[in-house]
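FW: tagging you since you asked about this chain on Friday. Here's the raw sequence from the shared folder, copied in full. Didn't touch anything.
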Amino acid sequence: MTHNAKTLMDYIKDVTAALNKPVNLPAFLSAPIQIPSLSKQRKAPRGIKVKSRNNPANEVSSKNFVIEGTLRPGLHGKFSVCDTDFDIDGNTWIIGSIEYGAHVKVKGQMQADKRLATQMVVLRPS
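HL: got it, structure written out here
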């Protein structure tokens, strides 16, 4: 047992010595990395969600929308949230079980004269 323990301790010392050995880095890793996008304040590009307090539907642009609220039947579309009608199709990602009265967050796009949901997440079931 003593012989095995000594061999194991020697192995651990060898591994420790190998891990502590300095390694030469390529030149590009020695230079400091500068990321200008982190140092400057930039405006959000078009299509990125920016919530507006004045607009209950949280409009982003004329092409994209984000709404959050209680899911209800729509007047002109299949569904409505915050009195904003929208439809879903086979490409809509749905996370959770859709039920009227559920609290949902919907992201989508305007298409011609209607809104089409691209993602619907059930935040709280009805």
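FW: The helical segments are 2-20, 27-30, 36-39.
HL: agreed, and The two ends are 66 Å apart (CA to CA).
FW: great, closing this out.
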